[in-house]
Amino acid sequence: MSRFLDSYRKQRVELTLEMGDHPSRETFLRLQELTYRIGVYETFQTIYSAAKAMAYTNPADHYRMFDGFVSLLMSERIYKSKSPEIEAKRETVFNTMVSFVDGYRKKYSRYVFKYPCNYIDDISETMNTFLSVWLAHRNTYFEIKGV
Fold first, then answer.
1. In a domain? residue 69
2. Residue 146 region by backbone torsions, left for phi larger than 0, else alpha for psi between -120 and 50, else beta
3. Lowest mean pLDDT among 11-15, 53-57, 107-111, 142-146
4. Which of 19, 41, 107, 146 has the fewest other C-beta atoms within 10 Å?
5. Is 92 a domain residue?
6. Into how many domains does the chain fold?
7. Tens digits of residue pLDDT in 2-35
8. CA atoms within 13 A on the CB side of 51
């Protein structure tokens, strides 16, 4: 997670420096997408940090916090492509994301919060996997290379 975040931050600084007074449309869109992804990754870092404390006191609340943020990401704005190939790819990746979310929700609906360390490891793995699928989905809208 931090590798992507560091790379995105570095790219954002570089873009900001090269933009000048009249950025191109492409530069502006790339900067906007980088800023959005940084916000998502930083939020996941915060949620992960909270897991370390909340796993010992109230892991169910922590899980609801995590799942609530995922729900927001699942409903982020989606716009259609004129290309049927791109639209098919987007649909495939989105369906993979939906399937993953359904799977982890099923897992955590019967999860036994026995040992806090296990929950921290499990939720970390769930977050990282979700972010990988989410990133593949975002890349069908705006691919950022060099990460």
1. yes
2. left
3. 142-146
4. 146
5. yes
6. 1
7. 788 888 888 888 888 777 777 788 888 888 889 9
8. 24
